[in-house]
Amino acid sequence: MEKEILRPDEERLAPKPLSGNAFVAFWQKIWRWWQGVWYGFSEKHPKLAPWIYKIFFFLVFSYGVTIWQFIVMTFLPYAFAGLGTDPWGWPNAELSFANENGATYILFGDSAGLGYFIAYEIAVFTAQCINFPLQRNITYRSHGNPWWQAMWYFIGWVLVSVFTLAIWGFINVFFTSWGWYLAGNEGLATVAGLVKTVLTGGVSMVIFFFIFLIIFPDADKTEKTKAAKLKSAEAALENAKASGDAQLVSKAQAAYDKAALEYEIALENRKVFHSEKNISSAKSLAEAKINGYHGKLGKIAALNKSAAAARAGGNTAKAEKLEAQVSRIEAGLEKSRSDALEAVTSRDEIVPAEEAVLAEVKEARAKRAAAA
After folding, report:
1. What is the secondary structure of 115-179 as a DSSP string?
2. What is the pTM of this model?
3. What is the pLDDT of residues 64-86, one digit of tens each?
4. Is 184 helix (H, G, I), strand (E, B) or coil?
């Protein structure tokens, strides 16, 4: 009778099956372990965890595209070798050194030639095309206007590029004077390319972190800002109506309508951000708790098997030690099971409710687009 009562709950606590591919299953196990660690940390440090998440993915994607730039710059310049290797760009100022290795300071361009400069710009631009959607959708989970954000990202990239190229133009003078680019020093030339990539990429990464905070603003803060703007526009409209000036009323009404639309969009973005976050968190937490519970069951089974083998082999001391471990795990097993059931119940309540919110926002946006 007891088994019949527990069976529905045990079915709810069934973990997702592992892949039949051993390699994939190995990484699935690591991912499940990490889920348990991360959500345990998130529960203890709810304010710190989001910042760690943001900084981690920001660094991973930033270093990832820096590696991409270095790989591209290792090979792509050869495709443009026909464009020449003479210093190209501006201001193209010749400098002399005691060692007679002439150097050229260039702010826009490259002392290695037009071909190298084109290859570098292609490498950097493609890296940003990869970096932008990853940072927007994963790191910052932004739901703002992508075209507006892309425009400001591009402007920021141009300004940062000019700044980093100015730094590189200065440092490159020393590499040239030291003879790093002379025939026979191909290894040093590669090191110079690596220094350029790390330097420009590292400086860009630091600057872009703050640019991202501006173009990918926090959904809650944006909603509050737009709410304050709407309130101000409403007060201005009331004052205009009180004045009886039709022209002033018309202007104030237009400002109010614009503020109301911006607030509506900000509110929708806030709802979408939190709904998607709640859905992801609820699903992942439930999965982590389920995996933790079944991990203990598996551990108990493995220890019992080892204890039985030890007893069969006459090693009573080892068997008792293993059985003591089983007892310690079993002491917390019921709580683990209860936590998993609670997480599953919460998931089954949260996911449908948040999906309904997402559907409402989608419908509201469709109606607004149709009316425009």
Report:
1. HHHHHHHHHHHHHHHHHHHHIIIIIS---S-HHHHHHHHHHHHHHHHHHHHHHHHHHHHHHHHTT
2. 0.68
3. 888 898 888 888 888 888 887 77
4. coil
